[in-house]
Protein backbone atom coordinates (compact mmCIF):
# COMPACT_ATOMS: atom_id res chain seq x y z
CA UNK A 1 0.00 0.00 0.00
CA UNK A 2 2.82 2.41 0.82
CA UNK A 3 4.63 1.60 -2.44
CA UNK A 4 1.44 2.20 -4.39
CA UNK A 5 0.92 5.54 -2.63
CA UNK A 6 4.46 6.63 -3.49
CA UNK A 7 4.02 5.63 -7.14
CA UNK A 8 0.75 7.56 -7.36
CA UNK A 9 2.43 10.64 -5.82
CA UNK A 10 4.96 10.56 -8.66
CA UNK A 11 2.25 10.77 -11.33
CA UNK A 12 0.63 13.90 -12.76
CA UNK A 13 -2.74 12.13 -12.79
CA UNK A 14 -2.76 9.33 -10.19
CA UNK A 15 -6.13 8.10 -11.46
CA UNK A 16 -4.50 7.31 -14.83
CA UNK A 17 -1.89 4.81 -13.69
CA UNK A 18 -1.09 3.45 -17.14
CA UNK A 19 -1.09 6.67 -19.17
CA UNK A 20 -0.08 9.48 -16.79
CA UNK A 21 3.26 11.29 -17.04
CA UNK A 22 5.57 11.25 -14.05
CA UNK A 23 6.03 14.35 -11.97
CA UNK A 24 9.46 15.79 -11.33
CA UNK A 25 9.81 15.52 -7.56
CA UNK A 26 11.94 18.29 -6.06
CA UNK A 27 13.07 19.30 -2.60
CA UNK A 28 10.59 21.75 -1.05
CA UNK A 29 13.28 24.46 -0.83
CA UNK A 30 14.14 24.04 -4.52
CA UNK A 31 10.46 24.15 -5.43
CA UNK A 32 9.96 27.30 -3.35
CA UNK A 33 13.04 28.99 -4.82
CA UNK A 34 11.99 28.33 -8.41
CA UNK A 35 8.43 29.44 -7.67
CA UNK A 36 9.56 32.71 -6.06
CA UNK A 37 12.11 33.41 -8.83
CA UNK A 38 9.58 32.93 -11.63
CA UNK A 39 6.95 34.93 -9.75
CA UNK A 40 9.42 37.79 -9.29
CA UNK A 41 10.39 37.75 -12.98
CA UNK A 42 6.71 37.69 -13.98
CA UNK A 43 5.71 40.60 -11.74
CA UNK A 44 8.81 42.64 -12.66
CA UNK A 45 8.26 42.08 -16.38
CA UNK A 46 4.62 43.14 -16.22
CA UNK A 47 5.37 46.11 -13.95
CA UNK A 48 8.23 47.55 -16.03
CA UNK A 49 6.40 47.22 -19.31
CA UNK A 50 3.20 48.69 -17.85
CA UNK A 51 5.22 51.76 -16.90
CA UNK A 52 6.29 52.13 -20.53
CA UNK A 53 2.73 51.60 -21.78
CA UNK A 54 1.24 54.13 -19.34
CA UNK A 55 3.95 56.69 -20.08
CA UNK A 56 3.49 56.57 -23.85
CA UNK A 57 -0.31 56.33 -23.85
CA UNK A 58 -0.90 59.21 -21.42
CA UNK A 59 1.02 61.92 -23.28
CA UNK A 60 0.42 62.86 -26.92
CA UNK A 61 3.86 64.43 -27.26
CA UNK A 62 5.28 60.91 -26.94
CA UNK A 63 3.27 59.60 -29.90
CA UNK A 64 6.17 59.63 -32.34
CA UNK A 65 7.29 56.69 -34.56
CA UNK A 66 10.04 55.49 -32.22
CA UNK A 67 7.74 55.44 -29.20
CA UNK A 68 5.00 53.66 -31.15
CA UNK A 69 7.51 50.86 -31.78
CA UNK A 70 8.45 50.94 -28.10
CA UNK A 71 4.76 50.71 -27.19
CA UNK A 72 4.34 47.63 -29.38
CA UNK A 73 7.40 46.07 -27.79
CA UNK A 74 6.14 46.86 -24.29
CA UNK A 75 2.71 45.35 -24.99
CA UNK A 76 4.19 42.09 -26.26
CA UNK A 77 6.66 41.94 -23.39
CA UNK A 78 3.91 42.66 -20.86
CA UNK A 79 1.92 39.69 -22.19
CA UNK A 80 5.08 37.57 -21.89
CA UNK A 81 5.11 38.47 -18.21
CA UNK A 82 1.63 36.98 -17.83
CA UNK A 83 2.65 33.89 -19.83
CA UNK A 84 5.35 33.14 -17.27
CA UNK A 85 2.52 32.16 -14.90
CA UNK A 86 2.06 29.05 -17.07
CA UNK A 87 5.67 28.14 -16.38
CA UNK A 88 5.00 28.53 -12.66
CA UNK A 89 2.01 26.20 -12.93
CA UNK A 90 4.15 23.42 -14.42
CA UNK A 91 7.23 23.50 -12.23
CA UNK A 92 6.74 19.77 -11.66
CA UNK A 93 6.66 19.21 -15.47
CA UNK A 94 2.94 18.42 -15.42
CA UNK A 95 0.41 20.16 -17.67
CA UNK A 96 -3.07 20.19 -16.12
CA UNK A 97 -4.94 22.52 -18.51
CA UNK A 98 -5.65 20.15 -21.39
CA UNK A 99 -4.29 19.64 -24.88
CA UNK A 100 -6.17 22.50 -26.59
CA UNK A 101 -5.00 25.08 -24.04
CA UNK A 102 -1.46 23.70 -24.43
CA UNK A 103 -1.43 24.32 -28.19
CA UNK A 104 -3.03 27.76 -27.83
CA UNK A 105 -0.53 28.70 -25.12
CA UNK A 106 2.46 27.67 -27.25
CA UNK A 107 1.08 29.47 -30.32
CA UNK A 108 0.43 32.62 -28.27
CA UNK A 109 3.94 32.38 -26.89
CA UNK A 110 5.36 32.15 -30.41
CA UNK A 111 3.17 35.03 -31.62
CA UNK A 112 4.30 37.28 -28.79
CA UNK A 113 7.99 36.44 -29.08
CA UNK A 114 7.90 36.77 -32.87
CA UNK A 115 6.21 40.16 -32.55
CA UNK A 116 8.80 41.22 -29.97
CA UNK A 117 11.71 40.30 -32.23
CA UNK A 118 10.00 41.91 -35.22
CA UNK A 119 9.43 45.12 -33.28
CA UNK A 120 13.11 45.19 -32.40
CA UNK A 121 13.86 45.00 -36.12
CA UNK A 122 11.50 47.91 -36.73
CA UNK A 123 13.24 49.88 -33.98
CA UNK A 124 16.64 49.19 -35.55
CA UNK A 125 15.33 50.35 -38.94
CA UNK A 126 13.89 53.47 -37.31
CA UNK A 127 17.21 54.33 -35.64
CA UNK A 128 19.11 53.57 -38.84
CA UNK A 129 17.04 56.02 -40.90
CA UNK A 130 17.04 58.64 -38.12
CA UNK A 131 20.83 58.64 -37.72
CA UNK A 132 22.06 57.81 -41.21
CA UNK A 133 19.45 59.80 -43.17
CA UNK A 134 18.26 62.53 -40.77
CA UNK A 135 16.94 64.79 -43.56
CA UNK A 136 14.58 62.13 -44.87
CA UNK A 137 13.45 60.85 -41.48
CA UNK A 138 10.62 63.38 -40.73
CA UNK A 139 8.91 62.75 -44.09
CA UNK A 140 9.62 59.04 -44.60
CA UNK A 141 9.02 57.78 -41.04
CA UNK A 142 5.73 59.11 -39.65
CA UNK A 143 3.56 58.07 -36.73
CA UNK A 144 0.82 56.87 -39.07
CA UNK A 145 3.22 54.66 -41.03
CA UNK A 146 4.63 53.33 -37.78
CA UNK A 147 1.13 52.30 -36.63
CA UNK A 148 0.46 50.60 -39.97
CA UNK A 149 3.76 48.69 -39.81
CA UNK A 150 3.11 47.54 -36.24
CA UNK A 151 -0.47 46.45 -37.02
CA UNK A 152 0.58 44.55 -40.14
CA UNK A 153 3.39 42.81 -38.32
CA UNK A 154 1.11 41.66 -35.49
CA UNK A 155 -1.45 40.31 -37.96
CA UNK A 156 1.22 38.56 -40.00
CA UNK A 157 2.72 37.08 -36.83
CA UNK A 158 -0.65 35.59 -35.79
CA UNK A 159 -1.32 34.19 -39.27
CA UNK A 160 2.22 32.84 -39.66
CA UNK A 161 2.21 30.93 -36.36
CA UNK A 162 -1.30 29.54 -36.87
CA UNK A 163 -0.19 28.13 -40.23
CA UNK A 164 3.09 26.90 -38.73
CA UNK A 165 1.28 24.91 -36.03
CA UNK A 166 -1.82 24.02 -38.06
CA UNK A 167 -1.30 20.28 -37.56
CA UNK A 168 -1.15 20.76 -33.78
CA UNK A 169 -4.33 22.87 -33.90
CA UNK A 170 -6.15 20.18 -35.88
CA UNK A 171 -4.96 17.36 -33.64
CA UNK A 172 -4.16 18.76 -30.15
CA UNK A 173 -2.21 16.38 -27.96
CA UNK A 174 -1.32 14.14 -30.89
CA UNK A 175 2.39 14.16 -30.09
CA UNK A 176 2.10 13.77 -26.31
CA UNK A 177 3.59 10.51 -25.07
CA UNK A 178 1.52 10.55 -21.86
CA UNK A 179 -1.23 12.46 -20.06
CA UNK A 180 0.07 15.65 -18.42
CA UNK A 181 2.55 16.55 -21.16
CA UNK A 182 2.50 19.73 -23.26
CA UNK A 183 4.28 19.05 -26.51
CA UNK A 184 4.02 20.54 -29.99
CA UNK A 185 5.71 19.37 -33.15
CA UNK A 186 7.27 21.07 -36.16
CA UNK A 187 8.29 19.14 -39.24
CA UNK A 188 11.81 19.55 -40.60
CA UNK A 189 11.00 22.17 -43.24
CA UNK A 190 8.76 24.10 -40.88
CA UNK A 191 11.50 24.13 -38.24
CA UNK A 192 14.14 25.32 -40.71
CA UNK A 193 11.85 28.03 -42.09
CA UNK A 194 10.95 29.19 -38.57
CA UNK A 195 14.63 29.29 -37.60
CA UNK A 196 15.47 31.43 -40.62
CA UNK A 197 12.50 33.79 -40.36
CA UNK A 198 12.35 34.12 -36.57
CA UNK A 199 16.02 34.22 -35.65
CA UNK A 200 18.74 34.19 -38.30
CA UNK A 201 17.26 36.85 -40.58
CA UNK A 202 16.14 39.26 -37.80
CA UNK A 203 19.46 38.92 -35.97
CA UNK A 204 21.36 39.56 -39.21
CA UNK A 205 19.29 42.67 -39.94
CA UNK A 206 19.69 44.01 -36.40
CA UNK A 207 23.46 43.45 -36.31
CA UNK A 208 24.02 45.03 -39.74
CA UNK A 209 21.86 48.08 -39.03
CA UNK A 210 23.22 48.68 -35.54
CA UNK A 211 26.79 48.21 -36.81
CA UNK A 212 26.12 50.88 -39.44
CA UNK A 213 24.53 53.17 -36.83
CA UNK A 214 27.50 52.64 -34.52
CA UNK A 215 29.97 53.57 -37.27
CA UNK A 216 28.02 56.73 -38.14
CA UNK A 217 27.71 57.79 -34.49
CA UNK A 218 31.41 57.31 -33.86
CA UNK A 219 32.23 59.17 -37.08
CA UNK A 220 30.00 62.09 -36.09
CA UNK A 221 31.53 62.22 -32.62
CA UNK A 222 35.05 62.32 -34.10
CA UNK A 223 34.01 65.02 -36.55
CA UNK A 224 32.64 67.05 -33.68
CA UNK A 225 35.91 66.71 -31.78
CA UNK A 226 37.85 67.75 -34.88
CA UNK A 227 35.62 70.76 -35.28
CA UNK A 228 36.10 71.65 -31.64
CA UNK A 229 39.85 71.45 -32.04
CA UNK A 230 39.74 73.59 -35.19
CA UNK A 231 37.87 76.44 -33.59
CA UNK A 232 39.94 76.10 -30.41
CA UNK A 233 37.03 75.66 -28.04
CA UNK A 234 38.17 74.01 -24.82
CA UNK A 235 36.51 72.18 -21.99
CA UNK A 236 32.96 71.00 -21.74
CA UNK A 237 32.22 70.60 -25.46
CA UNK A 238 35.08 68.12 -25.93
CA UNK A 239 34.05 66.19 -22.83
CA UNK A 240 30.44 66.08 -24.03
CA UNK A 241 31.50 64.71 -27.43
CA UNK A 242 33.62 62.04 -25.76
CA UNK A 243 30.81 61.03 -23.40
CA UNK A 244 28.39 60.88 -26.32
CA UNK A 245 30.72 58.52 -28.20
CA UNK A 246 31.15 56.22 -25.20
CA UNK A 247 27.43 56.22 -24.39
CA UNK A 248 26.54 55.31 -27.97
CA UNK A 249 29.04 52.42 -27.96
CA UNK A 250 27.79 51.06 -24.61
CA UNK A 251 24.08 51.39 -25.47
CA UNK A 252 24.38 49.68 -28.85
CA UNK A 253 26.61 46.99 -27.35
CA UNK A 254 24.06 46.24 -24.59
CA UNK A 255 21.19 46.08 -27.10
CA UNK A 256 22.90 43.52 -29.33
CA UNK A 257 24.60 41.42 -26.63
CA UNK A 258 21.56 41.07 -24.34
CA UNK A 259 19.32 40.19 -27.26
CA UNK A 260 21.72 37.49 -28.49
CA UNK A 261 22.35 36.10 -24.99
CA UNK A 262 18.62 35.76 -24.32
CA UNK A 263 17.58 34.34 -27.71
CA UNK A 264 20.52 32.22 -28.89
CA UNK A 265 20.08 29.32 -26.40
CA UNK A 266 16.52 28.51 -27.47
CA UNK A 267 17.23 28.61 -31.19
CA UNK A 268 20.54 26.79 -30.81
CA UNK A 269 18.83 24.00 -28.87
CA UNK A 270 16.15 23.82 -31.57
CA UNK A 271 18.86 23.61 -34.23
CA UNK A 272 20.96 20.84 -32.67
CA UNK A 273 18.08 18.89 -31.13
CA UNK A 274 17.72 15.37 -32.50
CA UNK A 275 13.92 15.64 -32.56
CA UNK A 276 11.69 18.51 -33.58
CA UNK A 277 9.53 18.50 -30.47
CA UNK A 278 9.44 21.73 -28.50
CA UNK A 279 8.66 21.50 -24.80
CA UNK A 280 6.72 24.35 -23.24
CA UNK A 281 8.60 23.89 -19.96
CA UNK A 282 12.16 24.00 -21.28
CA UNK A 283 14.87 26.17 -19.74
CA UNK A 284 15.62 28.06 -23.01
CA UNK A 285 12.02 29.32 -22.93
CA UNK A 286 12.69 30.89 -19.53
CA UNK A 287 15.84 32.63 -20.75
CA UNK A 288 13.94 33.82 -23.79
CA UNK A 289 11.36 35.34 -21.43
CA UNK A 290 14.07 37.30 -19.62
CA UNK A 291 14.61 39.38 -22.73
CA UNK A 292 11.15 40.84 -22.13
CA UNK A 293 12.26 41.89 -18.65
CA UNK A 294 15.39 43.59 -19.96
CA UNK A 295 13.76 45.35 -22.94
CA UNK A 296 12.09 48.18 -20.99
CA UNK A 297 15.36 48.79 -19.16
CA UNK A 298 17.42 48.90 -22.33
CA UNK A 299 15.05 50.76 -24.63
CA UNK A 300 13.15 52.96 -22.20
CA UNK A 301 15.31 53.86 -19.21
CA UNK A 302 17.83 55.55 -21.51
CA UNK A 303 15.18 58.09 -22.54
CA UNK A 304 14.81 61.26 -20.40
CA UNK A 305 11.07 61.41 -21.09
CA UNK A 306 10.63 58.02 -19.44
CA UNK A 307 12.36 59.16 -16.28
CA UNK A 308 10.22 62.29 -16.24
CA UNK A 309 7.01 60.29 -16.69
CA UNK A 310 8.11 57.93 -13.91
CA UNK A 311 8.26 60.88 -11.54
CA UNK A 312 4.66 61.74 -12.43
CA UNK A 313 3.54 58.15 -11.97
CA UNK A 314 5.31 57.54 -8.67
CA UNK A 315 4.16 60.88 -7.25
CA UNK A 316 0.61 59.76 -8.15
CA UNK A 317 0.05 62.79 -10.38
CA UNK A 318 -0.69 60.66 -13.43
CA UNK A 319 -2.98 58.38 -11.41
CA UNK A 320 -4.80 61.41 -10.00
CA UNK A 321 -5.35 62.66 -13.54
CA UNK A 322 -6.82 59.33 -14.59
CA UNK A 323 -9.07 59.04 -11.53
CA UNK A 324 -10.40 62.59 -11.90
CA UNK A 325 -10.71 62.14 -15.69
CA UNK A 326 -8.45 65.15 -16.22
CA UNK A 327 -6.41 62.99 -18.56
CA UNK A 328 -9.39 63.06 -20.96
CA UNK A 329 -9.33 66.83 -21.23
CA UNK A 330 -7.73 68.13 -24.44
CA UNK A 331 -4.91 69.95 -22.70
CA UNK A 332 -3.86 67.39 -20.11
CA UNK A 333 -2.49 64.82 -22.57
CA UNK A 334 -0.45 67.53 -24.28
CA UNK A 335 1.72 68.18 -21.23
CA UNK A 336 5.37 68.83 -22.05
CA UNK A 337 6.93 65.52 -21.03
CA UNK A 338 9.93 65.82 -23.38
From TrEMBL:
Coiled coil: none annotated. It is a multi-pass membrane protein. GO terms for molecular function: trace-amine receptor activity. InterPro entries: GPCR_Rhodpsn, GPCR_Rhodpsn_7TM, TAAR. Residues 48-299 form the G-protein coupled receptors family 1 profile domain. It comes from the Eukaryota. One of its GO terms (cellular component) is plasma membrane. Keywords: Cell membrane, G-protein coupled receptor, Membrane, Receptor, Transducer, Transmembrane, Transmembrane helix. Its main location: membrane. CDD domains: 7tmA_TAARs. The keyword Iron does not apply. It is found in: Cell membrane. SMART domains: 7TM_GPCR_Srsx. The chain crosses the membrane at residues 29-56, 68-89, 95-125, 146-166, 195-218, 249-273, 285-306. Belongs to the G-protein coupled receptor 1 family. This is Trace amine-associated receptor 13c-like. The lineage of its organism: Eukaryota, Metazoa, Chordata, Craniata, Vertebrata.
Amino acid sequence: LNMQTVEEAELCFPQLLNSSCKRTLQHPYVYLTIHLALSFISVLTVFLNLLVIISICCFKKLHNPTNIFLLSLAISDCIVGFLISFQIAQIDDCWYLGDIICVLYVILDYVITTSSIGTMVLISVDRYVAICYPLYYPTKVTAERARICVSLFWMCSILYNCVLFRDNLQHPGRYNSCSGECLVFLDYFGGVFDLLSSFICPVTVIIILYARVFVVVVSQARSMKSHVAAVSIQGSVTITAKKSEIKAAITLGIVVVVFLVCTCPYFCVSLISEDDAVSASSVPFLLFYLNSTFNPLIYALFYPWFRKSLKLIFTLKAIKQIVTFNILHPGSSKANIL
